[in-house]
């Protein structure tokens, strides 16, 4: 009777089917929800998941996208594909001490394919793939939840039966519209979590296929067990959490396939009960399958460890302050508080933030802190659920609660700080997989309420309301992820104590040219975190540009005092000292920056400018040459070399450098202009003219380009063309130095020629 109820896949079931377990109560029996055929259920889930995040398709690259995509050389065609296997997610060598050790080569490969097909860094293609991935995952969830909530059973024709079509649809909808998933879908870097989740689910479904041909529990397919291990490895190559699916497959095997009562098993192990020999574990192949999973997992982790090279990544106190606390008690209390915050984000995903570090969540240092209540509430609920999962006499209840807790906790373990320090306090993206467990527990709770409720329709309407609110929240949150300005400003109300939020708002304003507003936010970031060296560096830069040199020097000096290896701050300090005409100190600052960052072309460029100001021409040329060796497209360094050689009368050398530069950067109009000046002085008028005209075509509103071309024509004797370009130059810049004098000389000469002709 149970199997003929609510079966959306096969209304007319075959009379015989293979049982994976004894008959259990059907979860759908008391659930007041929609019953749809499997195909339509998946279409509805796909459509609703698409509607939640569709408005993020034309968003920009935001937050971490810049480092993981725009600045990641692994995406470019000139980087060998093989390098992806030795670099971290951000494009740094895994063997480097500065690497974050986030090894996700398959995710980076998909970014590279995106870049290739888009023909550059066009975010639309990247966003569309993320939306498609989330829709695909949500559809797969229908099948996954049907197994987790209804059990694994096949018909006599080998067709898997959906024994909980209503419950699986509800759980899949809850997953599809959960607002905490916005970071993974609307943020392109979230591709790692999406790909990991995709192969995570495929590994689980593959493991279930191992029992498709099962007859009375005696046989299984080793092939599909191995396939699930391979898919788990692929999931881990997308993001580290993927490896946890192997543990969940083992839990599923024990609970669903073998119907093991964990509490009873623990008792027998403790009391060395001989009846364990008759438990059927060896006969059903459970130990063999778990051995395969364990060996596969151990092998994957060993290879991952070998590739990683050095030890774990080095994070700073601002990334994860609790992990740096001296007291074990403080660490434990705060870790548990972080867990409660993650649980709250699953229950009430209203306050969402792109970053929860830097003072967003102050440390709990005393038991008198009222936030201890959150820990107590978390563990009260968890202990209650665990007791029910272990001790309930209802095997159906034990199975669903244990699976729900398993999918909630096990994928979260890599982010828990229990095995190694992580580089964040709370991260919404790491809850993508654990939310599966939340959806299982929510759906089971809804079924229990439905069973007790007299007015089931009211309960169903309430759940529909939750889904609708979540859809609206997803749409709002994904719109905030469309641009950095909206994203950063949305965080001000959620984490007003987060220095990084104020820093990012300030940086966004500075990039748009609003320096006055940027200063305000940078100052607040430094106030909230007096050791925030990046905020000091950026604020010092703005003050330097506004000629507030003494305050800029104080900030930059403090930054390098706090972080002595901060190369950018040393370079900026050198620029300020140079402006204050303290040349020896500036030189020392530049060399300190280069000491801490060997390949620093911008610092060599600024060092060259210092040497040029001191008339140390050879040193200046050497510094600029170093800049161009490290960065061949460094236009400013090339230009300064040409100009210095030109000004010192080394026209042949200036011409050679100019030609070398244009071979490397053929479309740079400033280089064309500088080389054209040199060629004009060398009386190579025709070639000089061609370069001037090409530069003007690229930048027609540059008064100096027209003015210098006019000088060339003036020397060459093409007086009418000289007059024309002098006039264009003066129209563009009436105060252009020397142009008016040259134009007046030309006019007098033309008047004299007219008189002679007359």
Automatic annotation (TrEMBL):
TPR repeat spans: 499-532, 533-566, 601-634, 703-736
Start and end residues of each DUF1736 domain: 311-383
Superkingdom classification of source: Eukaryota
One Pfam family from the record: TMTC_DUF1736
EC annotation from Swiss-Prot or TrEMBL: 2.4.1.109
Pathway the protein contributes to: Protein modification; protein glycosylation
Keywords: Endoplasmic reticulum, Membrane, Repeat, TPR repeat, Transferase, Transmembrane, Transmembrane helix
Gene Ontology, cellular component aspect: endoplasmic reticulum; membrane
Subcellular location(s) per record: Endoplasmic reticulum; Membrane
Gene Ontology process terms (BP): endoplasmic reticulum unfolded protein response
Membrane-protein topology: Multi-pass membrane protein
Predominant location: endoplasmic reticulum
Any one GO MF annotation of this record: dolichyl-phosphate-mannose-protein mannosyltransferase activity
Membrane-spanning segments: 33-54, 131-151, 163-182, 188-208, 220-237, 243-266, 286-305, 372-391, 403-424, 430-449, 458-476
Record-stated family: Belongs to the TMTC family.
Protein name (database record): dolichyl-phosphate-mannose--protein mannosyltransferase
Provenance organism: Pheucticus melanocephalus
UniProt gene name: Tmtc4
């Amino acid at each position: 009777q149970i199997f003929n109820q609510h079966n959306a896949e096969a209304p007319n079931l075959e009379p015989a089917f293979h049982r994976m377990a004894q008959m259990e109560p059907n979860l759908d029996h008391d659930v007041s929800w929609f019953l749809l055929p499997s195909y339509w259920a998946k279409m509805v889930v796909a459509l609703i998941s698409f509607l939640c995040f569709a408005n993020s398709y034309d968003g920009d690259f935001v937050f971490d996208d810049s480092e993981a995509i725009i600045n990641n050389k692994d995406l470019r065609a000139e980087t060998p594909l093989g390098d992806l296997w030795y670099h971290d997610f951000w494009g740094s060598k895994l063997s480097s001490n500065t690497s974050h050790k986030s090894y996700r080569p398959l995710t980076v490969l998909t970014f590279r394919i995106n870049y290739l097909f888009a023909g550059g860094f066009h975010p639309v293609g990247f966003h569309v793939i993320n939306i498609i991935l989330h829709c695909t995952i949500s559809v797969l969830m229908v099948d996954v939840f049907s197994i987790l909530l209804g059990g694994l059973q096949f018909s006599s024709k080998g067709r898997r039966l959906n024994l909980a079509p209503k419950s699986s649809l509800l759980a899949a909808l809850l997953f599809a519209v959960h607002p905490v998933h916005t970071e993974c879908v609307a943020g392109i870097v979230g591709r790692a979590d999406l790909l990991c989740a995709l192969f995570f689910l495929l590994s689980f479904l593959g493991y279930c296929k191992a029992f498709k041909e099962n007859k009375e529990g005696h046989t299984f397919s080793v092939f599909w067990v191995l396939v699930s291990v391979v898919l788990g490895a692929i999931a881990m190559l997308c993001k580290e959490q993927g490896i946890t699916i192997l543990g969940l497959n083992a839990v599923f095997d024990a609970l669903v396939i073998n119907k093991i009562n964990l509490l009873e098993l623990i008792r027998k192990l403790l009391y060395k009960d001989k009846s364990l020999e008759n438990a059927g574990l060896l006969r059903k192949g459970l130990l063999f399958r778990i051995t395969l999973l364990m060996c596969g997992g151990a092998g994957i982790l060993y290879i991952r460890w070998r590739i990683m090279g050095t030890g774990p990544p080095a994070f700073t106190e601002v990334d994860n302050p609790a992990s740096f606390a001296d007291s074990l008690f403080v660490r434990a209390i705060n870790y548990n508080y972080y867990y409660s915050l993650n649980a709250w984000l699953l229950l009430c995903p209203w306050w969402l933030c792109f970053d929860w570090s830097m003072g967003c969540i102050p440390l709990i240092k005393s038991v008198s802190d009222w936030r201890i209540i959150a820990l107590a509430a978390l563990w009260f609920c968890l202990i209650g659920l665990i007791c029910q999962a272990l001790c309930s006499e209802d095997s159906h209840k034990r199975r669903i609660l244990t699976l729900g807790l398993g999918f909630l906790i096990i994928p979260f373990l890599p982010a828990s700080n229990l095995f190694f320090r992580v580089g964040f306090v709370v991260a919404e993206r790491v809850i993508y997989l654990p939310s599966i467990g939340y959806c299982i527990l929510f759906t089971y709770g809804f079924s229990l309420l439905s069973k007790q409720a007299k007015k089931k329709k009211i309960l169903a309407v309430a759940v529909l309301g939750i889904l609708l609110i979540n859809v609206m929240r997803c749409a709002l949150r994904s719109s905030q992820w469309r641009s950095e300005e909206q994203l950063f400003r949305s965080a001000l109300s959620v984490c007003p104590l987060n220095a990084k939020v104020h820093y990012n708002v300030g940086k966004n304003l500075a990039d748009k040219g609003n320096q006055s507003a940027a200063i305000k936010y940078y100052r607040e970031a430094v106030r909230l975190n007096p050791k925030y060296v990046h905020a000091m560096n950026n604020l010092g830069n703005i003050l330097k540009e506004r000629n507030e040199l003494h305050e800029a020097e104080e900030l930059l000096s403090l930054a390098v005092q706090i972080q002595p290896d901060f190369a950018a701050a040393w370079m900026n300090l050198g620029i300020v000292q140079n402006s204050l005409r303290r040349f020896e100190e500036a030189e020392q600052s530049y060399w300190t920056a280069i000491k801490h960052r060997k390949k620093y072309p911008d610092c060599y460029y600024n060092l060259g400018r210092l040497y040029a100001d001191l008339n140390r021409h050879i040193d200046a040329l050497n510094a600029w040459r170093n800049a161009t060796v490290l960065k061949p497209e460094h236009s400013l360094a090339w230009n300064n070399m040409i100009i210095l050689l030109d000004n010192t009368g080394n026209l042949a050398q200036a011409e050679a450098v100019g030609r070398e530069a244009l071979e490397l950067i053929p479309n740079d109009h400033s280089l064309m202009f500088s080389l054209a000046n040199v060629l004009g002085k060398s009386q190579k008028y025709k070639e000089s003219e061609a370069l001037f005209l090409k530069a003007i075509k690229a930048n027609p509103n540059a008064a100096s380009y027209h003015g210098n071309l006019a000088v060339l024509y003036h020397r060459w004797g093409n007086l009418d063309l000289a007059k024309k370009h002098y006039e264009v130059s003066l129209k563009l810049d009436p105060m252009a130095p020397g142009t008016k004098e040259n134009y007046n000389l030309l006019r007098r000469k033309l008047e004299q020629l007219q008189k002679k002709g007359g």
